[in-house]
């Protein structure tokens, strides 16, 4: 039987800046660590305003400078069904975590939490919303997401995706 995949969903407000960036950066870093076939990665927003839209052009441009391709993504809104489909639901900030906690079914067996809490060495909890901010905010967002993605990939490689786990 093939090993079970770990399913990871990143969630922000609009699904056009932070969570699509996390989806692609985490997927790329996991692939470089040899975990591509062991993961399903997606992103969504708690808000509905941008459903169907591509990521914000600034998120696309800043990510492209670091070699990440975001332009093919389209925003969607998180649903209750996501709690059946994903093992890790990772919010970009505490506001979105609160919105997700309100949607969470009582019997959700997975992990709902803050993405940056998987990288405690960063000593910050939120990926700040860059939407109304400048280029530096998009670079800071990418720095945090790359750092936390590396930490989460290491955790998965040592634990849930280690040989023998989750089969
Ligand atoms: P995101 O950024 O949650 O990282 O996708 C935002 C995108 C759009 C809005 C807010 C945040 N907005 O208010 O439309």
Task: Name the bound molecules.
Answer: 4-nitrophenyl phosphate
Kindly name the structural category: alpha/beta
Low-confidence region ranges: none
Counting DSSP E segments of at least 2 residues, the number of strands comes to 4
CATH class membership:
Alpha Beta
- The main sheet orders its strands as 2-1-3-4
Q: Tell me the distance between the termini.
A: 8 Å
Give the helices and strands as they follow along the chain.
EHEHHEHEH
Query: Which strand-content bin applies to the residues?
Result: 5-15%
Major sheet details: 4 strands, parallel
* Helix content percent band: 25-40%
* Shape call: globular
Tell me the Rg in angstroms: 15 Å
- Total number of helical segments? 5
* Overall domain count: 1
Which oligomeric state applies? Answer: single chain
CATH arch. level architecture: 3-Layer(aba) Sandwich
CATH topology type? Rossmann fold
Question: Can you give the mean pLDDT?
Answer: 95
Q: Quick one: CATH superfamily?
A: Response regulator
């Amino acid at each position: 039987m093939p090993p079970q995949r770990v399913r990871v969903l990143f969630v922000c407000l609009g699904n056009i800046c932070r969570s699509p960036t996390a989806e692609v950066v985490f997927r790329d870093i996991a692939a470089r660590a040899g975990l591509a076939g062991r993961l399903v990665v997606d992103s969504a927003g708690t808000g509905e305003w941008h459903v169907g839209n591509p990521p914000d052009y600034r998120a696309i441009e800043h990510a492209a400078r670091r070699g990440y391709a975001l332009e093919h993504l389209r925003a969607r809104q998180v649903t209750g069904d996501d709690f059946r489909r994903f093992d890790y639901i990772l919010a970009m900030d505490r506001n979105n975590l609160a919105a997700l906690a309100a949607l969470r079914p009582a019997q959700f067996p997975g992990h709902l939490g803050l993405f940056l809490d998987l990288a405690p060495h960063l000593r910050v909890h939120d990926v700040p919303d860059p939407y109304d901010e400048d280029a530096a905010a998009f670079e800071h967002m990418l720095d945090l997401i790359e750092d936390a993605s590396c930490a989460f990939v290491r955790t998965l490689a040592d634990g849930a995706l280690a040989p023998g786990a989750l089969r």
